[in-house]
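Lecture 7 notes: from sequence to structure.
We start with the chain below.
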Amino acid sequence: MNAPDAPYRPLLTDAARPSTFTVTAVDETGAARETQIAGEHPLTLYVDKQEVLTMMTLGAAPEALAIGYLRNQRLIERIEDIVSVQVDWDVNAVVVRTRHGLADLDARTKKRTQTTGCGQGTVFGDLMGEIESIRLREDVRLAEETLYSLLDAIRHHETIYKAAGAVHGCALATNQPGASEILSFVEDVAGTMRSMRSPGRCGSRASTAPTRSSTPRGASPRRW
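Predicted structure tokens for the same chain:
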């Protein structure tokens, strides 16, 4: 239940899985050594009991991934449209329940575009056409000093990539001259997945702080 003056937040499970696990490998000298590798798990998304697709993910923030995916695909417009997001790893599924259902879901997911780049994926509907109409605010600027400050902060940030490699990262940060602060940093096994989790995490936390995003290998996630 949300407090009277608190931003809306759907009912969410907290079903994070460990992002890495340890395996025994043989190095170039023939010696056995333990090393960490990134986990990768299938997670099938259901919306109002209807299967949408199966995503591959680390499983570190499956609820945020589901919300972010639906928002990025323009299948939902507002966080208030979602009643609950429940993850069950016993059946590798995430179930999203909406307030009024998704109108014409079959028609909106019928047209598919296969994307290129890291983590080949699929986008639904006329998303590519909509991207052409998006215009960034002309009064917003990212100074070179701020960019370098953010890159330095990311370089010192503890990440799964440093421990195991094989993941992509996405940061949400403030746009403060020379002192950019990382507000959220997410990683996943594909560029598409980490870029979905970032706006999903913002939505699930109902964050309203003014921020800018930095996505080294992909399109910047849009705010709610």
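Points to note: Residues 126 and 136 are 20 Å apart (CA to CA). The domain at 11-130 is CATH 3.10.20.10 (Ubiquitin-like (UB roll)).
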